[in-house]
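Lab notebook, bench 4. The sequencing result for the construct came back, and we need a structural model before the next group meeting so we can plan mutations. Quick request posted to the team channel:

Model the 3D structure of this chain.
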Amino acid sequence: MAIVVSLFAFLFTLLGGLFALRLKRRMALVLGFSAGAVVGVALFDLVPEAVALAGATAGPALVLACVGAGYAAYQLLQRGAARYAGAGGLGAAMLSIHSFLDGLSIGVAFKVSAAAGTIVAIAVVVHDLCDGINVVTVVRRNGGDPRRARRWLLIDAAAPVLGAASASGLRLHDETLGLALAVFGGFFLYIGATDLLPASVRAEAGWPPTLMTVLGMAVLYAAVRLASL
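Done. Here's the predicted structure in token form:
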């Protein structure tokens, strides 16, 4: 199931890259909604699930420490992408590693429940629309031709599917699964709050991007509540 759902991430990554120019005028709103959705999945789904699975045995402090570790780890990965963006291919490779981790989070979340996996997949799909745009932009900005950009776009689009497939072979106890979800919660907090949200503000001043962020969080909160009924 996780692999099937991850195919949507594949499609949306391709759409993001292929329609980067057409979406440029509305990118602030897309980024704003994406930021809210990704933060929402961390706060309303991943972290509560992590506490429920591992809090009683590992303790809430360790669960939250794993959230912080995930945040820090993703920041290091993001910095690596920024550092090598000038090389075009290396920057695109780092972004593809991001996408692989996104797919891995889908697979791990589906081990908790179908509802949790679906919620995480929604956030990943929304985020990967922007990832496709980023990969094409990095390659083209550094002198890559359209063929090279399309090749890296395909690699980045396939990465979440590979990540979800690799998670299917994992055998995790509840405590380990909970701590893994906490790490992924840190990933998503970084993506939403430190990456996508500032990008939406830079893209367009004013209230619309902010309102879209609030809407993204509200939509994910409603989705999590409905999934738990």
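The chain has one domain: 2-227.
Will bring this to the meeting.
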